[in-house]
Amino acid sequence: MSETRCLQGIWSSPWIFIFAASGAAVGLGNIWKFPYVLGENGGGAFLVVYCLCLLLVGLPVLVAEVALGRTVRSNPIDTVNDLSERHICHSAWVVVPWVAGITGFLILGFYSVIAGWAMAYLERALSGEFMGITSSVAISMFDDLKADPTEMLLWHSIFMVLVVLVVGQSVTRGLSTVVKILIPTLLLALVLMAAYSFSIGDVPSTLDFMFAWSWQDVTFDVVLSAIGMALFSLSIGMGAMFSYGAYISKHMSIARACSIVVAFDLIVAVLAGLVIFPLVFESQIDVQSGPSLTFVSLPIIFGNLIGGQFFAGIFFLLLVVAALTSAISMLELFVAWLHERFYVPRLNAAFVLGLAIWFIGVAVLLSFNHWDTEIVFGMNFFALLDNVTTYILLPIGAILLSVLMAWFMPRDMLLNEMITKNTDHFHWWYNVLKYISIPALVVITLAGWLGA
Ligand code: PFF
Asked: What number does CATH give the domain 9-451?
């Protein structure tokens, strides 16, 4: 691999990687998406299957992605070219980073609009609009936002400018300092909010919904949703974690670091559920209400709390920062590649790519109002983008990347380069990836497409 293409610098401690990767993983997926997907999929059974998916698919694929990054220490696109020059794989595998990058692009197109909702709610929180709010007012507040393309456009544009500036100024890696504060604060805020939500909400129904399950609730749709959610939530299958893996030291246990990232990600998601569902049941909000669930229930929680205006402000600020640290990881891949390979200034690359994503976001936000028409299979543009990325592109990226690691990279090379201390971890990871994660991803994804 040519020296010029190698990335410079190594993270000084495993915790810096853990925080950076957690910053990419923890975001709107945990607080906005997980609760409503849990709601749509019946609760407890989904949670059990989701945990299994994290363990048997999410963690092994995350380790594979990070480990490939560390093994080659380059950007994903050049990596495949280098591997093909070394006759490890065919040059056609270059399709993998392209699929990954395009997935990130499309996800960011709608992610930015949802992050815009969080910003709009930050503004409403600070101006005291949640005070004494009832569930019907909370529902119409959210409906009003979705019906107003101008306001959504404003927040979406501000969010994209922030993403472009952060990625363009090359401070992406510096953000692990922000995440070091963000994750513990977010955890603390969620624990306090869950305690408060338990004190005013319907606890028995929540515990029953989230933790009771039976085998007949485990349907194929539940498994499919859980796999999609795991890939989305851990940000895998699209090169973001690869880019972070490229900076970690040879002596760090990837398995351990990735397990901590998965644990953080799961804890934040479950806590978000524990915050939201007591209120959802107490206020008789429909658990199946989909993407609006979080944005309708949170204002009610804050609206009835002493000092709620202040706490709501802090919480939505944390949510926006969490969304930002995830969003930048989606843009980083192509910007890094354009910069390293073609010497395009980072800011220019980020601006051009960000502009293209901004246009996708405009179509998304219009699909909540003026353009809320069916495009295919009863889905509008937002639903189409969400489903195509979650159930088609992310699984394809994850499968191809895992196959490359498990079936093409020489096993000895992986063993020597990747695992420094514990060979048991290596064998566990390698066999699970090869014989469980990949077949599970292939079978479930294919069955999902055929049944769609
Ligand atoms: N994992 C992020 C979240 O849960 O909000 C979303 C995400 C970020 C998906 C980065 C994909 C990605 F590359």
From this structure: 1.20.1740.10
